[in-house]
Amino acid sequence: MPLHRKNIFRLPSPAPTTIYVRPGYNRVLAEQFEALKRKRVDLVKDKVEAHSQGDLRENFGFKAAKDAIRAVDRKMTALDRFVARNTFFEVDPATWLTKPTATLQLGHVTTIEKQDVATQRKHHFTFLVTTHGETASDPESGIECLPHNSPLATAALGLAVNAETKVKLPAGESILVVRSIRNPTQSELDRLLTAIQPPEIEDEEE
């Protein structure tokens, strides 16, 4: 059986993972899928109407509707695969206010020192290690959200204060040191945790 060029260079599917999310995230996923289904129904109606207008070779409305349906189908397929490949656990941020701080865990505020091995430059960052998809920052405290499944969080989770580890990050090899671990305050959570958004999923063309 001959190999197709598009399959030779396709990246393998990501391994299933456990993704921690805030309560309501699964509902947002379902709502997004239903919205795509409704959009597809409307596009099919547009396609049928355009089809009735004559010569399809010069029918730009028909072609536009057809392309839009394909785009929606790709998004629906990608979202369906995202849900099927992963297991989602809902975590209540209220539990982050009083959890033990012996090692860095989801929900902690931490200051991390990152030293680039190649340049020896050191950088300090203060993060709230949070659930999937969080990207907010707090100008008042200087804290940024760091999703628990990001490369940096994956390397730092489980470390104790002043523990050092050498890791390979997308930007290069680095030495990480956790300089502090504490619980967030309620006001910090109020400023950092925004409305839950559906995932940004790239189209997966067949």
CATH C-level of the largest domain: Alpha Beta
Helix content: 25-40%
What is the beta-strand fraction? 15-25%
What shape does the CA trace take? elongated
CATH topology of the largest domain: Chitinase A, domain 3
Low-confidence stretches: 1-9
- The order of strands across the largest sheet is 5-6-4-3-8-7
* Count, helices: 5
Order of helices and strands: HEHHEEEEEHEEH
Query: What would you say the CATH architecture of the largest domain is?
Result: Roll
Radius of gyration: 23 Å
CATH superfamily of the largest domain: Transcription elongation factor, GreA/GreB, C-terminal domain
Structural class by secondary-structure content: alpha/beta
Descriptive overview:
This protein is 34% helix and 24% strand. The chain is an alpha/beta fold and 206 residues long. The protein has two domains: 16-90, Helix Hairpins, CATH 1.10.287.180; 93-192, Roll (Chitinase A, domain 3), CATH 3.10.50. It is elongated and about 70 Å long. Mean pLDDT is 86; it is low at 1-9.
Observed structural traits:
206 residues; Helix Hairpins; Chitinase A, domain 3; 2 domains; two-stranded parallel ribbon; elongated; disordered N terminus
Short description:
By secondary structure, this protein is an alpha/beta fold. It has two domains: 16-90, Orthogonal Bundle (Helix Hairpins), CATH 1.10.287.180; 93-192, Transcription elongation factor, GreA/GreB, C-terminal domain (Chitinase A, domain 3), CATH 3.10.50.30. Helices cover 34% and strands 24% of the residues.
